[in-house]
Amino acid sequence: MGSLLLLPSGILRGQGLKPSGKLNVGFIGMGGQMQGHVSQLAEMGHRVAAMCDVDAGQIASSMKRHGEAASQAVSYADYRVMLEKEKGLDAVVIATPDHWHAPICRAVLRAGKHVYCEKPLTHTIAEARQLRDLAKASPGISQMGNQGSASANLRRSMELIAAGFFGAITEVHAWHPTHGWPSGVARPAGSDAVPAGLDWDFWLGGAPPRPYKTKIYHPGDWRGWYDFGNGSLGDFCCHTFNLPLRALNLDYPSRIEVSGSGLGQESFAKACTVHLHFAARGDRGPVVLHFYSGGDVPPESASEWLRGSGGSLPGNGCLMIGEKGQLQCGLWNSDCNVRLKDDRRFIWAGNHPAAKAVPESLPRVKSHMDEWVDACLGGPKVFSDFDFGGHLTEIGLAGIVALRLQKNIAWDGANMKVPGLAEADQYIRRDESSRYF
To answer: What's the rounded mean pLDDT across residues 144-155?
Structure first.
């Protein structure tokens, strides 16, 4: 039987209360992902106080897009200047490339502001551990942007697993389709002129210097390059591993096995399979979490029931296999389709007679952003604070360490080490001496 893993945020502090019930919000990283956050918070009646980006063009397009809602927003090219000058900010939303998450989150937490940061929480394991600790000591409310955490289906899945509906779960299979970022390739030669309004050195931040190339890094393809992101595993671990981590009480994998094509490049693998082995813990037996990307998929032996229900394997998904049945929960954990051994096919849990008998025990919320805002205003704790989000990020990035080493590894998660392999350290932490931090 599984047990619910709810890693709570820090105790709510009185500083988070605002008599007006409205937050003054600063936004950092004005690319495509941020646009929905600005719209949602503005629609909720909160003030768009500031926008910050090292690319002036990103700010200009955001201002135009949001019109009246952003008409009072002050523009900044440097997040440090924004935090220094905008004394009235209550909260900050961050949607920069991954390599900038930790430095900006550190600054926001140290300023005592509430903070919402897109997933993955950080670019390296050591950064995730640091933010977990900082968030516990900060008066601000933190939330990582893995939006499926607010899904009623995720919470229903947790309730079913905790009730032993599927029996002991031993396998989790998650597969991601071929992605559009650079993968399995070296960086292109040469350089191009830096666009007007873009501070390329600041965009690089703590990453090693490299020449600008049009349509290679900024604004959309940075995630494929290890200096800035961690490919599909870094991108989707905080979605796909979310439910297994919570519901199965997973701590750290003890062993990680990898295979694939296009390994050993500056960019993420062309295709890969990553097996993360978790030892037995409490009343839970061993669990293996399998991640597939770029065309690698679960074997038919594991996915036979799912293939039979739909006629073929879905293009992406997450499948949890127990001794009594299976759960198809999707990459974003936004599905809850179940099948017990005597069932002919998967059906939504809300229509399954046996599943209906399991009572609800977890709160439901309107949205991931609503949950964070409510907590900032003194309401209930969030579901995906930086302690939980950091732990989730650490698990995915441990797989990145093995992929970059191109070998199977033992993993000491508590101490953030590959025992006996000092060369792994370069992929666990990075140089923090940048003049931009």
So the answer is: 97
Whose CA is closest to 120, among 223, 218, 36, 208? 223
| Structure confidence by residue, pLDDT tens digits, 306-342 | 998 888 999 999 999 999 999 999 999 999 999 999 9
H or E segment to which residue 80 belongs = helix 79-85
pLDDT digits (tens, 9 = 90+) for 352-370: 999 999 999 999 999 999 9
**What is the pLDDT, as a whole number, of residue 9?**
35
Q: What is the DSSP string of 158-170?
A: HHHHHTTTT-SEE
Element (DSSP H or E) covering residue 425: helix 425-428
Query: Between 161 and 11, where is the model more confident?
Result: 161
Q: Where are the beta strands (DSSP E) in 30-146?
A: 47-52, 74-76, 91-94, 114-118, 142-145
Give the strand pairing for 271-278 and 337-340.
unpaired
Number of other CB atoms surrounding residue 345 within 10 Å: 11
Half-sphere exposure of 119 (CA within 13 A, CB side): 31
Tell me the CA distances in angstroms from 169 to 165, 285, 288, one per residue in order. Answer: 10, 8, 9
- Domain-by-domain residue ranges, the chain? 14-149+368-384
Q: Is 372 helix (H, G, I), strand (E, B) or coil?
A: helix
Say yes or no: domain 14-149+368-384 is CATH 3.40.50.720. Answer: yes
pTM: 0.94
Report CA torsion sign: 58, 61, 64, 65: negative
Across 7-18, average pLDDT: 40
* Predicted pLDDT at 20: 72
Structure tokens at 403: 């992929």
| Contact indicator for 315, 177 with CB cutoff of 8 Å | yes
Alpha helices, H only, 163-318: 200-204, 231-240, 242-248, 300-310
Query: Percent of the chain beyond pLDDT 70?
Result: 96
Give dist(CA 385, CA 377) in Å, integer. Answer: 15
Question: DSSP label at 145?
Answer: E
Do residues 317 and 175 make contact, with C-beta atoms less than 8 angstroms apart? Answer: yes
Which H helix or E strand runs over 155? helix 152-162
Q: What dihedral do alpha carbons 152, 154, 156, 160 form, nearest 10°?
A: 180
Task: Give the distance from CA 96 to its chain's centroid.
Answer: 13
**Percentage above 90 pLDDT, the chain:** 92
